[in-house]
Amino acid sequence: MGSRCFDSPVLFMKLGITSNHDENPTLGEAIAHVLEQPSDEHYLFDIITEDGLINHACIREIARTEAFAHWRNQDH
After folding, report:
1. pLDDT tens for residues 15-30?
2. Which residue, among 53, 66, 76, 73, has the nearest Cα to 1 in the 3D structure?
3. 28-41 burial, b if ≥16 CB within 10 A, otherwise e?
């Protein structure tokens, strides 16, 4: 997974309701938003990409990758 994929637009949801966090969040922005929430609330979030659903467990796994760390360290 390259860091450019984190700039792809996604549908960001909390408990099945589209979040108003950002009108067109990117994958990286959505993951960063989830990480900013209390850890006991991470399970409330889902991210939907054109490839499918990313649940809270996958969000945490992606957040630990070198590619995400690289994306986050850029100007975002």
Report:
1. 756 555 556 799 999 9
2. 66
3. bbbbbbbeeeeeee
